[in-house]
């Protein structure tokens, strides 16, 4: 009986200790730490707010009786020890007292997992000046004061789909030197179409930060196009910077000794107040174009014969969201056979936004003789500089088919019987030789020769070859499924040709792959680029009865294109994604 009772007691204590340790692991701590509770008026005070879980909306106290000379500096550390994750995040300030007396560092607040946590107040006593103040800064203090990451935004109140440029600059004091850095947290740019402009060289330039001379380096440039109006937040960029800080110590030869340390800097959140496009004066055919554009509709020829082809190009050029709107479609006469347009894009993204041109190329083949007018079409866009809508109209184009069969409703005028006679001059036959120099040939020179029999029996030999090729062509034409597969493979190669050329170049490959996938959806589903969210694509493809495996494959490719901006991808992964994209487009096209 005693053994049973001992086992029960042992199990109860083990369970209690396990639950206690689990509760301690999940317990949230938010504390205030100070470098000292008593200091002279000529000394400095370091205040640090630490937490063991990540939080948002940090609000520091007012620091009454002190002046903030540095901060807040954010520091994050995360590690795994014996299979357990430890996390620590802190906000630190450097304060100097403004008067003698007793002061209180009041409560700071932060939100963690939806709950608000507060620190305990801390009493600080400021005395008269001391002989040896702690004005000598530590290595971390110098690094905190000398490093500042700033996100410069070109516009804080842009219109919907207007370009906004974000430039991340790292300001470094001349007192220290940066050896390296690594990103800790890259912003996701939710609710924005984003395009990063690569920074090829990190060249230090002279500048000022809060009125003091600094050197700065541009680390990152991003062009954003907001896809919804209202207050949109740009997530902060956080970096770990490795620096060399000079100390007051000297080596044997009198040289200054440097100390290495690393600090975490953050650009902080930026909020944009995105304005909706005005409803007043909005054209009925407005398709979402924002910028400053030119518009044209041209054809490769205006006169041709039936069964010949011509190219009609609908083109928009200029500066603006060129990749984010649908081109207008021409209204062509029903008697003209029109093929699916080929999308042509020549756009580059610079610091001020996208510029270049986009176009749809239509192949047109007339079947009957006559005159066919192509009516003018309009293209509307919103100019954010003038805050007005602009509508551009193309001119009417007349296509004349000179030779070919007459259609049932052909109104072309038939040729008249009037003829124009040519008056002879007496020299119209002067090119005929009256005294030719002829020589005799043998009677059996050609007849009975090898060439004679070859030409005689060659048609007989060509008959079975012609029959074979005819049956082969008929078999290919009757193979509907095979022809669909061939057309689908050609379509996949068409949209993925650019990405294939960039295999091995990660950034260029995934940018081209993403464009190819988007252009395929534009051509097949006629949907606006502003609707290019993964949920919208999934819903549309599901409504089109596309198999779920193909839809998931298409969405996973888009996710890979996004992840490739921030994650390393091998050549094998790029080759697999290219083959997967080709297969998904081919199979989806058969079902669509």
Automatic annotation (TrEMBL):
The keyword Transmembrane applies. This is Oxygen tolerance. InterPro entries: BatD (IPR025738). The lineage of its organism: Bacteria, Pseudomonadati, Bacteroidota, Flavobacteriia, Flavobacteriales. The chain crosses the membrane at residues 452-470. Residues 1-23 form the signal peptide. Keywords: Membrane, Signal, Transmembrane, Transmembrane helix. Coiled coil: none annotated. It comes from Flagellimonas pacifica. The keyword Signal applies.
């Amino acid at each position: 009986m005693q053994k049973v009772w001992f086992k029960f007691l042992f199990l109860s204590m083990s369970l209690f200790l396990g639950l206690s340790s689990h509760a301690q692991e999940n317990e949230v701590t938010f504390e205030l730490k100070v470098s000292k509770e008593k200091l002279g008026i000529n000394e400095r005070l370091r205040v640090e707010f630490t937490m063991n879980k990540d939080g948002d909306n940090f609000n520091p106290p007012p620091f009454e009786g002190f002046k903030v000379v540095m901060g807040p500096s954010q520091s994050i550390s995360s590690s795994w020890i014996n299979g357990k994750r430890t996390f620590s995040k802190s906000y630190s300030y450097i304060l100097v007292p403004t008067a003698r007396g007793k002061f209180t560092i009041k409560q700071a607040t932060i939100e963690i997992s939806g709950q608000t946590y507060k620190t305990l107040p801390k009493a600080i006593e400021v005395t008269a000046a001391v002989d040896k103040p702690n004005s000598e800064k530590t290595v971390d203090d110098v690094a905190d004061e000398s490093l500042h990451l700033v996100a410069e935004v070109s516009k804080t109140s842009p219109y919907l789909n207007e370009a906004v440029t974000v430039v991340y600059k790292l300001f470094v004091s001349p007192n220290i030197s940066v050896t390296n850095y690594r990103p800790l947290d890259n912003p996701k740019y939710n609710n924005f179409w984003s395009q990063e402009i690569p920074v090829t060289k990190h060249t230090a330039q002279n500048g000022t930060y809060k009125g003091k001379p600094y050197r700065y380096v541009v680390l990152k440039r991003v062009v954003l196009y907001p896809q919804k109006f209202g207050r949109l937040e740009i997530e902060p960029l956080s970096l770990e910077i490795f620096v060399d800080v000079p100390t007051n110590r000297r080596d044997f030869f009198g040289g200054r000794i440097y100390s290495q340390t690393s600090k975490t800097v953050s650009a902080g959140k930026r909020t944009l107040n995105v304005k909706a496009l005005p409803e007043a004066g909005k054209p009925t055919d407005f398709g979402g174009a924002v910028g400053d554009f030119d518009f044209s509709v041209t054809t490769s020829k205006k006169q041709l014969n039936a069964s010949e082809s011509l190219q009609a190009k609908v083109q928009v050029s200029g500066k603006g969201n060129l990749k984010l709107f649908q081109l207008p479609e021409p209204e062509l006469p029903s008697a003209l056979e029109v093929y699916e347009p080929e999308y042509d894009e020549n756009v580059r993204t610079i610091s001020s936004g996208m510029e270049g041109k986009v176009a749809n190329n239509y192949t047109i083949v007339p079947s009957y003789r006559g005159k066919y007018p192509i009516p003018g079409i309009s293209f509307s866009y919103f100019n954010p500089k003038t805050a007005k809508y602009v509508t551009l109209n193309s001119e009417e184009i007349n296509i004349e088919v000179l030779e070919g069969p007459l259609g049932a409703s052909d109104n072309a005028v038939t040729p008249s019987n009037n003829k124009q006679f040519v008056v002879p001059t007496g020299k119209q036959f002067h090119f005929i030789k009256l005294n030719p120099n002829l020589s005799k040939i043998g009677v059996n020179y050609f007849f009975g020769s090898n060439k004679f029999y070859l030409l005689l029996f060659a048609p007989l030999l060509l008959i079975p070859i012609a029959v074979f090729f005819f049956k082969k062509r008929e078999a290919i034409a009757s193979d509907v499924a095979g022809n669909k597969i061939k057309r689908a493979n050609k379509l996949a190669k068409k949209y993925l040709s650019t990405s294939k050329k960039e295999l091995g170049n990660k950034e260029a490959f995934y940018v081209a792959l993403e464009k190819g996938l988007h252009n395929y959806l534009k051509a097949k589903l006629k949907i606006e680029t502003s609707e290019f969210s993964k949920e919208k694509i999934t819903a549309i493809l599901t409504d089109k009865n596309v198999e779920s495996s193909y839809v998931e494959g298409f969405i996973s490719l888009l996710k890979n294109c996004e992840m490739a901006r921030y994650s390393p991808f091998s050549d094998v992964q790029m080759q697999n994604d290219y083959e997967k994209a080709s297969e998904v487009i081919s199979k989806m096209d058969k079902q669509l």
